[in-house]
Write a structure and sequence with these properties.
The chain is of the alpha+beta class. Helix content is 34%, strand content 25%. It is built from eight helices and 13 strands. Strands 1, 2, 3, 6, 12 and 13 form a six-stranded mixed β-sheet that branches. The protein has a three-stranded antiparallel β-sheet with strand order 8-7-9. α4 packs across α6. It starts with 9 loop residues before the first strand and ends with a helix.
Amino acid sequence: MASKARDHIVVVAIDFGTTYSGYAYSFLSDFIKYKTDHLNKIHINNWNCGDLMSEKTPTTLLLDKNKEFVSFGYAAENDYSSMTEEKRKEHYYFRRFKMMLYDKDGKLTLTRDTVLKDLRDKEMPAIDVFARSIEYLKNEFVKKFEERNLQVSITPLNENVTWILTVPAIWDEPAKQFMEEAAELAGISKESLLICLEPEAAAVYCKWIQIERDDDALNVMKPG
């Protein structure tokens, strides 16, 4: 993960998963102020899934017959399930589409020319499917952030927000480039984007976890 010197206000990390997706964000000021406790200052969005709340939402995208955005996540699943059969035929419905990027031998096949098929085998460029999904998560963050009325302005986004997109470690450079281009189509500038390998993200998180000291357990390890 290459570092970029930026005078940003907020860092937003998008976890674009195979089954579920979500995002979290934190303020640079909190990171500086609460050096030993800043992990507790991370804000995670919650989605309504019936009677429960979830920190992630299904990686499911619903588009209309003109390939315009309708809904994403739980909302997409609910919208599609409530449609008549005729209406479903008119729409594009993509679920767990990251799995479609691998061939039968498990090899990643992802370029700007890759095409995805929806639930009814209707085709659409993969980069557009990814871009619409990333754009939804980006817009959802902006909407929820503004609703909190924190008296903090994050516009223009490309100057005040650093976006992080996680990708699997096995993804090659063309696949990472694909994600950068999809993010750019979603309205995220290259200057404000970091592509991070999932193991790297986990390692950085573990680096900052406060490990509780258990003196009794440590004494067991002493000689004698």
